[in-house]
Structures
1.
Amino acid sequence: MTNAPILVWLRRDLRLTDHPALYHAAGQGPVVLAFCHDDQDGRALGGASRWWLHQSLAALGDTVTLARGRCEAEIPRLAEACGARAVYWNASADPALSATEARVRQALKIPTETFAGDELFAIGAVRTNAGTPFQVFTPFWRAALALPPPPQPLPRPAPLVLAPCPGLPLAALELMPKLDWWRGMAELWQPGEAGAAARLADFLDGPVETYQRDRDLPAKPGTSLLSPHLAFGEISPRQIWHAAQALPPGDGIHTFLKELGWREFSRHLLARQPDLATIPLRPEFRAFPWRDDPEALRKWQMGRTGYPIIDAGLRQLWQTGWMHNRVRMIVASFLIKDLLIPWQAGEEWFWDTLVDADSANNAASWQWVAGSGADAAPFFRIFNPVTQGEKFDPDGSYVRTWVPELAHLPNAFVHQPWKMGRVPGYPPPMVDHALARTRALAAFKGLKDDPAQHLLL
DNA sequence: TGAAATGTTGGGGCG
DNA sequence: ACGCCCCAACATTTC
């Protein structure tokens, strides 16, 4: 064994525990942990994600050596600068990220080794009896659960001997926004591995028990809030899986693990369809008569639609970088079906504003709502923003939190303020939902009935 | 992981 | 006592 270090290239796996590449490298001697910020490494991160990344790297502190520029130039340069004898990393599931990894491998003159990525089940391991990929979630997840369970998480390497390597200061990555819109985020989140572990512990200590019931109530702290930590790999799904399995079984845990299943399903879809964020999986949707309406899109983005549950969700997103999952479905349905704005516009907005923006989850979920994806909600499933609000935010406390103009309204009006007359400072509904619903159904019907449209594909 | 329209049922008021 | 109507409650169908 030489004393030359192994360079461990951090991807979207900013943690030290259950990190296969790091674990195996550290078992052989000194290690250099390196991260390279590269806007051309996959899809360029949105503003909220850049803030999170900055904080997550700050949490790693001196442990990590930083670089900026094209990965295929910077990783070989760092490897040479620190005299590395090999480069290890965990393989990414996103084809755009693995393409970068292939270029890096090609550019390196020293050996490389890659390890299992952040999936519970290896991409391609979950297949039908006929050997084909699943198109529907439920059988996919059933088949996955029949496989050997995900391996136990690896411990944090001890001892972890870090070799010195010159890198950039964090500020040189220029990830922090110029304006300080991130204050609301800093209050809610603690990026980094320790924050992730604390969230998991808090969730498993209480909310998971009633998860099946409470996860749909946006005013309650009923969800795990782990999504941004998962998106940056500050915690691995294997860690979550095994921590949850260690508890007494129940509906809550079962339902929670199924959400990890959707994450797996999305990754399997993205691996097969690298353009998942832009191209509808169902080809007939390419001919959908979407509207081009920048002004309407802007009202939606800013939370000024006039529908309280929609506006609350989009303002929560803007202020915290996160939105409750139930509300994500409602606002997405509204953009796509009430406004007839292409789902890709919503996908882009979420990509830019979510701290948990994930190339697979975001694309697959927007396609799911649009009805254009695998195992998607049928197009005619159109959420009524008033009904959804009354059902899942019955006392209006979620709306009151994020739309202060409505805080004083009685419960009976908090989800339909126009029935009280004009509320100062709050806009009237930008569309009539009943009319919008009819319009959406007509547009969809035209898509199916008009054979000429299919010829346009 | 819908909503709205339409259909069915059954209790109670009433002539 | 009986048929008729109303309508809420629930079920089914349709988009």
Note: Chain A has three domains: 6-117, 118-152+193-272, 283-449+451-455.
2.
Amino acid sequence: MKENKDMANINDVAKLANVSKGTVSNVFSNKRPISDEVKDRVFKASKQLGYTPNHIARSLVTKKTMTIGLKIPYSKNLTLSSFHTNLITGVISEAAKRNYRVLIDTIAQDDVGIPHLTTDPIDGVIILDPKQNDERISFLQELNTPFVVIGKPQNLNVNEAVPYVDNNNEEMVFEVTNSLLQKGHEHILFLNAPETMTVSHDRKAGFVGAFERNNLPYRNEDNHFEPSIYDDPNKYGYETVYEKFNQENGTPYTAMIVDTDKVALGALRALRELNINVPNDVSLIALSDDLVLSHDTDPQLTTVDLAASSLGAESVKLLFRNMEGESERLNHRVIVPAKLNERASVVNRSNEKH
Amino acid sequence: MKENKDMANINDVAKLANVSKGTVSNVFSNKRPISDEVKDRVFKASKQLGYTPNHIARSLVTKKTMTIGLKIPYSKNLTLSSFHTNLITGVISEAAKRNYRVLIDTIAQDDVGIPHLTTDPIDGVIILDPKQNDERISFLQELNTPFVVIGKPQNLNVNEAVPYVDNNNEEMVFEVTNSLLQKGHEHILFLNAPETMTVSHDRKAGFVGAFERNNLPYRNEDNHFEPSIYDDPNKYGYETVYEKFNQENGTPYTAMIVDTDKVALGALRALRELNINVPNDVSLIALSDDLVLSHDTDPQLTTVDLAASSLGAESVKLLFRNMEGESERLNHRVIVPAKLNERASVVNRSNEKH
DNA sequence: TTGTACGCGTTATCAA
DNA sequence: TTGATAACGCGTACAA
């Protein structure tokens, strides 16, 4: 009965079971066949001593931790959106299929550029919210740590292909914008993500492209990047809409595309206060991931489902391909298509008797 | 230029900088003062070789991983609710304050009883959703791993005090029920959590207690435990309400308390289809954590905020007190009060002209 | 500061 | 085939 004593180790078990260290090791790792009789002795001794193989010592020699990292940057306080939640779920579930677990590591935006003082106890890492010339990417390449980016990396200083998983952002916003233009909306406001995020440029390209395709004039102020001052997306939606729509001479836009579900909620609130009806006065589409939420707004929100869970799962798959060293021959890029869910917040103006 | 070679280790650096291993170690860990000149040599050599201290080797000797585990059981597929999300946020943020990170470990409900084959590379662990006689608790005690339970553990086979963090569930449901009774609701339906979860019994006690206090009859069918068949809480709310309220002779209840926000959404949907108005026909209160959601239902939902983020943060604080060995003298129990947010989904029947 | 034992498994290599 | 032996991985800590 060694109670408060330190845990038993492999030597104690070997001694008690009258076998060697190596045999105990093989019993637990199944690397070599062991006779049932010996196995039994070892298990009995282990149970008696309360022995469990030490994960750390094992990792030291196998160089596997059975863990992948997930690096989530945050701006001021950590707040996980439903996009994050779904993405994390996808990562965890896919990792679990391979008996891997997920180490969540949050970093303040300001610290993104600072290298870690020690290597992480992980076999690979998924990084979120890549910024232009994101220094995390060069660090990881130096350390030779397998990694995958969620979102489109734009590192000009890196010549190798960076593996990443992303939505078809340009195409997705093109399609959404195009469908609005086809429905007779000529003035569309886009509340885009912050300019520092690479995704915002793809989306802007799709937005502008749709106007060009339809031979309609695009004005630069129609694309509105989120200013960095906001840490509350709801507030961003509310204040921006209030500012843009609080005008004497009618509503300047007949449709809006907004970055996230939370921005949409803020926008809805502002429009309600301004007595602007959705969808009759203004149609609204959110690039969103919270399907529960969108069903329970009034009106039900037309959204683009970003399939965050798939993004997470695909990033794990790609990461494992990298970890297995197949990276050279494989696609470095996985595109997860977004899906338009049409609900009640969009109206067709062509049919209207305006 | 050792590129594809293995990473440099402490010996390589020591050799190149012309110092001993120990000195290099101290330069990185700051355990002993080192002259600036030597420090500089070491840093230069490290940079040249791309050396970073190996976290695993360090853990092996310090016996610290700077990581805490978070064990989340799931029933069928892993789905993280907003309660989980907030809780995780609280855990991560509080851990980050101490330079700790969080290893998320999900376990299928069915596997809760199966011991792990190796010790986890963590310094302590937080476990969620304790069940009656949860075997994880005895395992952790055997392994001497510091742990904290979120929710009330009920292990009859364990005599020691189990440290846990919980809401004041009995009191909270008592208050909520009491306030409804005071408002003239005599028939209240409680869609409780599954009977297997310890929390459901505390809540039932508060529910029943409020009837007793008000000298009103409590009927056993008024407390409805969630059957284990559901893995979708929305469906649970929808189907149960449909079944209970789809009757010829008027609505059998004038008020409902439901377990989570998602159950509330399902309940709202069913009531809408049954043409039962909330709150005029039936008042509704959700034991919920999603403040965004509750603002955007129609009507806005009266909820009890479970303060999941605080639950997470407090559990980390308690865990650290345990890890520092102070457990003997300290409180093993932290209660995080829930907070009633009154909104539009509850009506006062005493004032009505019924 | 330096040298060196140490922690705890794994994995050749060798022996039976 | 199975079992035993010894070297190894990578820092830390303590005596010299």
Note: Residues 1-5 of chain A have pLDDT under 50 and may be disordered.
